[in-house]
Write a structure and sequence with these properties.
With about 200 residues, this protein is α/β, with parallel strands linked by helices. The chain is built from six helices and ten strands.
Length: about 200
């Protein structure tokens, strides 16, 4: 009987040791996950449609920076189109929210649950530029050159060989440069893909 009691006590100690060891391992795994997901996004995470699942804050920032650098604005003139790219006129595109702020929307302490959830984050784009440098870049466009601008001509009547000929209107290409600058600046601020200067009344 005494031997059985001793055996049971020994088994209990072994079981107790195993349980505590298992709990210790689980605690270490959990804390490790907390540390990891304090600097990484959970799986199934997108930001402005870009996949940043499992990415670190710096890696996610690099992904967005690469995509933001591809931004371009098509400037539609009456007789053609020009493009403004990131860097032209010191154009820069950033997110309204920092990557750290977006990451904090996922509770790192709840990472065992977060890994099964789907997250879709959106952050507005903020476009900045230097007005004077941008104006100089716009002035380089061929359609902004004075010699390429023509005034509009109304319909008119002309006599040729005793016949009356009606000449139709001719749409000019003369631009209000100040309105052009403002229209393009507004389009950039709105992160628009294009701006039609004819529609804007330029």
């Amino acid at each position: 009987v005494i031997q059985n009691i001793k055996k049971e006590k020994k088994n209990y100690k072994v079981l107790k040791t195993v349980c505590f060891s298992l709990l210790g391992v689980l605690l270490l795994v959990y804390l490790g996950g907390v540390i990891y997901f304090s600097n990484h996004f959970a799986g199934k995470t997108t930001l402005n449609t870009y996949d940043i699942s499992g990415k670190s804050i710096s890696s996610a920032q690099n992904i967005l920076d690469e995509e933001l650098a591809k931004y371009e604005l098509s400037v539609i003139f009456k007789n053609g189109t020009e493009k403004l790219l990131v860097g032209d006129g010191n154009i820069k595109v950033e997110l309204a929210d920092s990557m750290k702020t977006i990451r904090k929307k996922q509770n790192a302490w709840l990472w065992p649950f977060n890994i099964f959830d789907k997250y879709t984050f959106m952050s507005e784009y903020v476009v900045s530029f230097d007005k004077e440098t941008l104006k100089n870049k716009i002035n380089e466009f061929s359609y902004m050159q004075d010699h390429n601008m023509k005034n509009s001509i109304n319909a008119r009547v002309r006599m040729e060989d005793g016949e009356v000929i009606i000449l139709p209107d001719e749409t000019g290409t003369k631009l209000d440069k100040e309105l052009v600058y403002q229209s393009i600046a507004d389009a950039l601020t709105m992160h628009a893909d294009s701006v039609d200067l004819d529609i804007m009344g330029c």
